[in-house]
Amino acid sequence: MTAPELDSLRLLVLVGELGSIGQAAVALGMTRPSAGKRLSFVERRLGLVLVDRTRRGSALTPDGRVIASWARRVLAELDGLLDGAEALRNRHENGLRIAASMTPAEHLVPRWIGELNRAHPGLHLGLEVTNSDRVAGLAREGKADIGFVESPGPFTGLTSRKVAVDHLVVVVDRTHPWARERRPLTPAELAATPLVVRERGSGTRETVDLALRVAGVGPVKPLLELGSASAVRSAVVAGAGPAVISALDVADHDLVPVAVNGVDFGRVLHAVWPEGRRLTGPAAELLALAGRRSSRE
Length: 297
What we know:
Elements: H1 6-18, H2 21-28, H3 32-46, E1 51-54, E2 57-60, H4 62-94, E3 95-100, H5 102-107, H6 109-119, E4 124-129, H7 132-140, E5 146-149, E6 158-172, H8 187-192, E7 195-198, H9 203-214, E8 222-226, H10 229-237, E9 243-246, E10 256-258, E11 266-274, H11 281-296
Parallel strand pairs: 3-4, 3-5, 7-8
Antiparallel strand pairs: 1-2, 5-11, 6-9, 6-10, 6-11
């Protein structure tokens, strides 16, 4: 059995409420003959007589009243669906949930969302700063509309797009022996030295481990595992030991970069969002803005 059209169900409900096919037709913006044909078609499709038609008006039969009561529930559920979809659309149009790992969150995302906010002053922006693994999880679970990560991937269940490039550097405090070393370190020397590192799941930690493995000497030996880039910087400045951090984090800090031969610490920063989903509204604007800024820098 093929289901009746929704407008036919609305017509049936209105006939029961108004006691007239003509008045129900006017309420739905259709002609009386068209309404009559619709009702006859529904009756044939369901194999039931739903409306008693008399000169004094129209009334629902007992079967018609049962079908109309079910139709009201169907239409109410549909109205709830449409209202919910409208609320979701308004949320996406009026708010943007962003997640970002430490390096993009500290150095790039604030500029991007500042420019987006200037273009849309009423837009509510929320930024959650965490490590790359968690950012990917938030995007995958739909808890962030878009995420920015510094890990090399792969990004299972996500679509990714390059938004910036970065380079990691080895740094020490000014009293460390490497600060006075004139020759570059070898990969083996770096791998043999315990380092101040980010926690597992951070993009920087993953990039360092991968680069050392590619050089044939990894992974890194942790001296301290810390939960933020600022904590790693502070530990190095305090003399805890060497670290590998973003070049963006070196400026304006009392750190000495140390050259290393034979290790590629370059990396790409990505935007991520759920696989198969097309970005729209503010999320799409933010992605485009990040791409434009990246191409100019």
